[in-house]
Amino acid sequence: MKNKFLFVLSFIGILAGTAAAYFFSITRPPLSPVFNPVSDPYVSGIYAEGIVESVQASGENISLYPEVPGTVKEILVAEGQEVRKAEPLLLIDDSIQRATTEQQKSAAQAAHAMLEELRAEPRKENLDIAEAQVLSAKASLKTAQDEMAKQKASAELDPRSVSQDALDSAINAEALAQANLEVARRQRDLTKAGAWTFDIRNQESQYIALDRSYRASTALLSKYTLRAPTDGVVLSIGTIVGNYVSPQGAYETYTQGMNPVLVLGTPQTMLQVRCYIDEILVPRLPPLAKIKAQMSIRGANIRLPLDYVRVQPIVSPKIELSDQRQERVDVRVLPIIFKVEKPKGVNLYPGELVDVYLGE
Asked: How many angstroms separate the CA atoms of 198 and 215, rounded?
């Protein structure tokens, strides 16, 4: 019984080995490639790596950085949204700056009110009081003069009827009343003349200084709202509510670098392709008036003709993917910008790398 069982197992093993040998000996045809490799469409073309951008009259996509640091309070737009010039995009917490602005506004208003008060002098009520004081001083002088006249007349009739001390007191009282009248008149004239011109000038200077501080503070307050510098499309938002941003940008967790807070481009019916020509290949470039170019989208069998726009006439270091300026760079490139119309049904976005061949 045991030998029979071993025979059956051996037979099954032989069959399995034969089937496996036959199965693995079958030659399968190779799979066709998903897309064809990039080929040179020209007789002697120049290869360049390109990057897709939104159309700009000059330069690249618009990278927005706040002019003041602070915590993001609200983001008013979304990626892909079209915006108009001066439209608010992002709000930074401005509570401290707003309180400072309000304080400076109140100080400027108080200084202006004081200036208007000085310019409005003399006040009618103060002038009436000054006139009343003059009348009171005149009455006091008249009383003192009458008293002195009585004392002198009595002394002339009978020197023994008035003491010398009483006569002297009457004379002094008359002189004091005369002096008080003169003081009252001068005080009235001073009140009537209004504020001193130097006081007005000093108050004007204080008001101007405070008003300028208020205006400067108001201008700074407006910087806490990041606005669109031109019509465009929001390509990317590099921060979230609660993040700290500064004029250096927003901290990026993954790259641990500082990126733009927002990036704006133009509507993506037309796109630009910025090609980087190695400095070694620059002498081989055809005349710009005759230059032709074709773009290949990576991962697809799509070839698109490019229209020459301009050349950025400076050979600069090629920055690699880290985009760090302190990175050592040995390769220098010449940027050439082409224009391409975005085909319908094709996924093509700013920031995408493409292969470009240039010829004539």
From this structure: 26
